[in-house]
Design a protein that fits this description.
By secondary structure, this protein is an alpha/beta fold. It has one domain.
Length: about 100
């Protein structure tokens, strides 16, 4: 399966990625690649900080819609510990919302 690298740094201004607006642009790019059956690698080289709202906008809807597919078709590279912790939090938060719907 093909893989597309999305350089998150290229979408922002500076080293902090925040807000749903920029996140929405990246989310739409991810959707286009997913629709073509392409795995997406979100590369965070050059990014020092991210906000919860940014990460939630970028990946939250995919996680909630299809958790297993999101885990398989999304990769994250060059993440520092802060970015990793925000990504993990969003994954767990959205996963719990999926479980709530099932009960």
């Amino acid at each position: 399966m093909k893989e597309k690298v999305i350089k998150v740094f290229d979408y922002g201004v500076g080293t902090t990625m925040s807000g749903r607006n920029i996140g929405n642009i990246i989310k739409n790019d991810i959707k286009a690649y997913f629709d073509m059956g392409i795995i997406v690698n979100l590369n965070f080289d050059g990014v020092e900080n991210v906000t919860h709202s940014f990460i939630d906008e970028v990946i939250g809807t995919y996680i909630q819609a299809d958790f297993d597919k999101s885990v398989t078709n999304l990769k994250f590279t060059d993440c520092n510990e802060t970015i990793k912790s925000v990504i993990k939090f969003v994954f767990m938060d959205r996963k719990s919302k999926v479980k709530e719907k099932l009960t």
